[in-house]
Write a structure and sequence with these properties.
heterodimer; A: 357 residues; ABC transporter involved in vitamin B12 uptake, BtuC; two-stranded antiparallel ribbon; globular; B: 527 residues; alpha/beta; Rossmann fold; 3 domains; 6-stranded mixed β-sheet
Chain lengths: 357, 527
């Protein structure tokens, strides 16, 4: 329990609730269920690509092509629907497109050894370029209405898509917990050489991470097309950076090895909520990006200060313990490595105080 | 001093078929031949120590044994059968596990996850086994704490546990003691003995000859890719080992890296503490911080002050506070006669104080740039120089290469390609290029071989002869005894001066490891 309370995810969740409550003092309408449902609904696209991004960053990689993959998948999805493919088959096409794009990234990074930032910057251009080549630069409209029905259908007044993505998130969280192999994402990001030496297939792990980023971007494309009913050229533009911001906000360290599914979920909700709050505060939308950026910095720095404070207290306690233990410990001779060595850990360990940027 | 006398009465290692054997192994990298047909084996229940200087082929041999490298020629036998170890995990599967010098810990995963990562099988069963193994080897820590909070000693136990959970028959311990305190070394030695009783064979790599003599059953010495000595430990002496490790033409007149009980060959002119009053080059008064309190000492031109202390005693923190890396410390520091109330590395260097930390990589070795860049960096920064002619840089580098006997094909070679000992010498060259008045060396010989060690000691003597003040911080008592004119003991955050007189290793050891300084007994009885 205390571990949950101390987690970054929890901190951001508390801030999210605090923010909504604070805004409600100015404008009561924020607390209406429909507002909260709408926030969740508009966060779905970002949440899905953030989820894919999370796998990559856990392994200490980065993927700046996820927005473009979502865009390209949306285009393919639109074509498939307009060609008369049944909805489920069209969805599979979109997912396959995303997965294929992710695998191209993975192949370049893992097999050819191209640094992730360079490889995905390259494919960002390629995927976005392909969107234009495929469509000739025009939007895809006149998409059959059955896809929009997905977005309009509501159960208990909550859109079907929210239920769907919610179920997916929970499924992923359960799988991450149940399938031990998923710990490899953490191990590879935390200490790649150590993971390799312990027999973990680090290359396969990274390959899967980038492939998953593509798959989830394909899923995001389905949500996007379902929600707006056409495919503009800007689909997914700039979302890669927003997805990175969301997971970092939620506690995924760019140094790899920390974070969870909930980081992506809460991070995406938070960033979307910031946009909504601006509306309720009647602040012009042009402020959105600046405020979201400032919030990101604020949370990361706050988290860092809290952790550093905790580490300092721990160190001071250890120093005191060491001074006390020293007199009694020495006489005993070959003491077990427990008591005294604990005192050196604080100085040696690269723990806690690190900023998770 | 005859540490070899403490040999185990029975020789478990001399019987039994080898667990693993290297037969006629050659390794050639591009055009460099590193191993020249070596034979080596590890038998059940023995500790086989491997010694060798930098570039002797030691680490290459270990990498072949642990599956990280493939031999160019020759074969590896496991349990008598020829095997190919194509990957570390194949070595694991065949019962060979290497505990690296820097344990591979996942700082953000829990201790339990650190133990079980990479293992297949029923989860509950693996967890149960992890608990069992941890208890056996004395790893008493919270399994839910993050791996990053473990001390180095416990990190090593985690690595050993990983090996045992993979049913390792052979454990390779690569310099396991280099960052342990005396207590931890003793407890590790006890663990090693317990492991050998279970029939596990240990390959023990260390630069510390006293530990090798104390803990091993057999010793093999590698030099230039060949074994020059391979014999039961009983009957060997530290001198014999050093002799084997050094190249034939080396002048071994002045002691050895282990130098137990030997003082300096040339004691300083005034060993009685009443110097002919040259102004101190460094004075520290009432300096306190989180890790130490009320520390005061001074260093005069031309003397070596040794600070002895175990890891965690506050030695490094003290050095960092003096140098200005830790700006929260309270107290007075006077560098070359100039009070320096507000210090930063830059200010300290301008006043004439330099510091070489324990972790050489953290201190601006430019690994991929030509060596000349590292050597000239401090000098240029201090002079505010924007340009230095390449020819000047090269001749500056050449001067130090000669003085420090750095093994270097060309001054333009990237530092990354040099061995550990040579990298350490490059850091020293870099620090000394601006000609500081006083320099603090933190663990100057950590992880480097006996010969490079002697070069560093010789350099320290040359520096003091030229009028520089030197502070040497070390957890190796024999090193402190070897180089120091005066010895200070750092214990529990406090600094005490040893009484004046000849520098004796036993007295330093006693004071450092926590017994009364007046007692003649070395700290913590030898096992």
């Amino acid at each position: 329990m205390s571990r949950i309370v101390k987690s970054r995810e929890f901190l951001v969740l508390v801030l999210l609730v605090a923010m909504i409550l604070a805004v409600s003092t100015v404008n009561k309408a924020v607390l209406r269920p429909i507002t909260l449902i709408n926030i969740a609904n508009s966060s779905l696209f970002l949440m899905l690509i953030a989820l894919g991004q999370m796998f990559v960053i856990l392994t200490r990689g980065i993927d700046v092509s996820v927005g473009a993959i979502a865009g390209l998948s949306a285009v393919v999805f639109g074509f498939a629907l307009n060609a008369g493919l049944p909805l489920p088959l069209a969805m599979v096409t979109a997912l396959l497109t995303g997965t294929a794009c992710g695998m191209v990234n993975a192949a370049g990074i893992v097999l050819a050894g191209i640094p992730p930032i360079i490889m995905t910057l390259g494919t960002l251009g390629i995927y976005r370029g392909l969107m234009r080549v495929l469509t000739g630069g025009s939007w895809i409209e006149s998409i059959p209405h059955n896809i929009k029905a997905l977005a309009v259908t509501r159960i208990l007044n909550v859109p079907l898509m929210v239920w769907g993505v919610g179920a997916l998130v929970i499924l992923v969280a359960i799988l991450m917990h149940k399938i031990r192999w998923t710990r490899n994402f953490y191990a590879v990001g935390d200490n790649s050489e150590g993971a390799y030496l312990l027999g973990i297939n680090t290359r396969l792990t990274r390959f899967v991470a980038f492939t998953l980023a593509g798959l989830f971007s394909g899923a995001a494309a389905i949500v996007f097309v379902g929600q707006i009913g056409f495919v503009p050229m800007q689909t997914g533009d700039g979302q890669e950076l927003k997805a990175i911001a969301a997971v970092v906000l939620g506690g995924v360290s760019l140094m790899g090895g920390t974070g969870s599914v909930w980081s992506a979920v809460i991070g995406a909700l938070f960033l979307t909520a910031v946009d909504s709050m601006m509306i309720f505060l009647r602040i012009p939308g042009s402020w959105n990006n600046a405020v979201a950026g400032a919030v990101l910095l604020l949370v990361v720095v706050m988290d860092y200060m809290i952790r550093r404070g905790a580490q300092r207290r721990r160190l001071a306690a250890r120093a005191a313990e060491m001074l006390r233990a020293d007199d009694t410990d020495d006489g005993a001779g070959g003491s077990k490595s427990g008591g005294r060595s604990g005192a050196t850990a604080g100085a040696a360990g690269p723990v806690g105080g690190e900023v998770r940027p | 001093m005859a540490p070899a006398a403490a040999q185990m009465p029975d020789q478990p290692g001399t019987s039994g078929a080898p667990l693993v054997a290297l037969r006629g192994i050659w390794k050639v990298f591009e055009s460099v031949t590193v191993l020249r047909g070596i034979d080596f084996d590890i038998r059940p229940g023995e500790v086989h120590a491997l010694l060798g200087g930098n570039g002797s082929g030691k680490s290459t041999m270990v990498k072949i044994l642990s599956g990280a490298y493939q031999p160019t020629a020759g074969r590896i036998e496991v349990g008598g059968r020829a095997e190919v170890l194509a990957h570390p995990s194949e070595a694991h599967a065949k019962g060979i596990y290497m505990v690296p010098q820097e344990p591979h810990i996942f700082p953000n995963l829990t201790v339990l996850e650190n133990l079980v990562t990479g293992l297949e099988g029923e989860r509950a069963e693996i967890r149960r086994r992890a608990g069992e193994v941890a208890r056996e080897i004395g790893l008493n820590v919270d399994f839910n704490a993050p791996g990053g909070t473990l001390s180095i000693a416990n990190q090593q136990l985690v690595e050993i546990a990983r090996g045992l959970m993979r049913n390792a028959r052979v454990l390779i311990l690569d310099e396991p003691t280099s960052s342990l305190t005396r207590h931890e070394v003793e407890s590790l030695a006890a663990q090693v003995r317990a492991l050998t009783r279970r029939g596990i064979g240990i390959l023990f790599i260390s630069h510390r000859l006293d530990e090798v003599l104390e803990m091993s059953d057999r010793v093999s010495v590698l030099r230039d890719g060949r074994f020059v000595l391979s014999a039961p430990t009983a009957g060997l002496t530290a001198d014999r080992l050093v002799e084997a490790m050094l190249p034939e033409d080396f002048d071994n007149g002045n002691g050895n890296g282990n130098g137990m009980g030997k003082g300096r060959s040339a004691p300083p002119p005034d060993a009685q503490g009443n110097r002919p009053s040259p102004a101190p080059v460094l004075e520290v008064r009432n300096l306190s911080s989180l890790n130490f309190s009320d520390v005061g000492f001074s260093v005069h031109a031309g003397e070596v002050v040794g600070i002895s202390g175990v890891v965690g005693a506050g030695r490094t923190e003290l050095a960092e506070a003096i140098y200005g890396l830790d700006q929260t410390a309270q107290g007075e520091v006077v560098i070359a006669g100039t009070p320096a109330p507000h210090r930063s590395p830059r200010i300290s260097q301008e006043l004439g104080l330099s510091y070489v930390p324990e972790d050489r990589h953290a201190f601006g070795l430019f690994l991929t740039l030509p060596t000349t860049h590292t050597v000239s960096a401090s000098l240029m920064a201090l002079r505010g120089a924007r340009f230095m002619k390449p020819a000047q840089e090269i001749s500056l580098t050449r001067r130090f290469v000669e003085r420090l006997r750095i093994k270097l094909a060309s001054p333009l070679q990237p530092v990354r390609t040099l061995s550990g000992g040579n990298q350490q010498k490059i850091v020293l060259a870099r620090t000394l290029a601006p000609e500081p008045k006083v320099v603090i060396l933190d663990e100057p010989t950590r992880g480097i071989d006996a010969r490079a060690r002697q070069d560093v000691y010789r350099l320290i003597r040359e520096l003091t002869a030229a009028g520089m003040g030197v502070v040497v911080i070390s957890s190796e008592v024999s090193e402190i005894a070897e180089v120091s004119d005066r010895v200070l003991i750092m214990r529990r955050g406090r600094l005490e001066e040893m009484p004046p007189g000849p520098v004796e290793v036993d007295h330093i050891a006693a004071a450092t490891f926590g017994e009364a300084a007046s007692s003649g007994e070395p700290g913590g009885g030898r096992a």
